[in-house]
Amino acid sequence: MLKDKVALVTGAAQGIGYAIAAEFAKQAANVVLADYNPKVNEVAEQLNAKSAGQITGLVMNVMDNDSIKNGLDQVINDFGHLDYVMNNAGGGVLKPFAELTDDDFDKTINLDLRGTFQCMRAEINVFLQQGYGSIVNTGALGSIYNPGGMGAYNAAKNGIMGMTQAAAVDYAENNIRVNCVAPGLTKTPLNEGVFLEKILPTVPMKRYETADEVAKVFVFVASEATFMTGQTILSDGGVSVGLK
Questions:
Q1: Where are the domains of the chain?
Q2: Is 185 left (phi over 0), alpha (psi -120 to 50) or beta?
Q3: What family is it from (predicted)?
Q4: Burial 84-110 (b: 16+ CB within 10 A, else e)
Q5: Are 233 and 219 in contact (CB under 8 A)?
Q6: In 3-state terms, what secondary structure has residue 165?
């Protein structure tokens, strides 16, 4: 149980982010659901009604430094400390490489890579002040085992893995752990339809990963894997060890 622990999850209004928040809540943690979409407040209220910890919503834009700082200040003001951060906000334009426009590339890099960088930088400064903390970033199996059409997205997610390693080494002596989880073929509101059906036959387990399943991995890496840092953990149904 994670009673009295505080977790912040970005991109938490739906999908994997919401599932991570719900898993922390199930373990009695206090959870802040952050998202650029104001509906996150309503989502947090619904989760709070069935949770042992305190669940709150936070409207935060990961591409805006002031928004990130204000959000973290609010968390510290409300709870006094912050134990875990899940940098999950992201998305991307999926097109064959030569069809990507400059705008497609910039939007994907700014949201996924720059947004994660800006959050990590601010979070690490908070953790340095309090003397500890754990960050888990969201990677992507597709950036390692590529089904195609992911040029900009791959650039961003591989960058996140690189930043994870760099920050882990920089702050290991400060009791700050930084890791990454790369979900496999996960069914979410933003990832349904033809793409999933096309990739499903390549998964050795022959099924999707659920958001609830991968959420357990995030929470374990954040809270239980206390000697792990700088790692990218694949939760992929066997894809990384053999395609079928």
A1: 6-234
A2: beta
A3: Belongs to the short-chain dehydrogenases/reductases (SDR) family.
A4: bbbbbbbebbbbeeeebeeebbebbbe
A5: no
A6: helix
DSSP category for residue 226 = T
The three-state secondary structure class of 10 is strand
Known catalytic residue: 208? Answer: no
Identity of the residue numbered 126: V
**What predicted TM-score, i.e. pTM, was given to this entire model?**
0.94
Enumerate residues 6+ apart whose C-beta is below 8 A from 178. 120, 134, 135, 136, 137, 164, 167, 168, 171, 229, 230
**Residue 1 confidence (pLDDT):** 85
| pLDDT of 244 | 55
Number of other residues whose CB lies within 10 A of the CB of residue 152: 23
Q: Which CATH class is domain 6-234?
A: alpha beta
Catalytic residue among 18, 153, 171, 208: 153
Instruction: Give me the average pLDDT of each 10-residue run along the chain (244 residues).
Output: 96 97 98 98 96 97 98 98 97 90 96 98 98 97 75 94 98 98 80 66 80 97 98 87 66
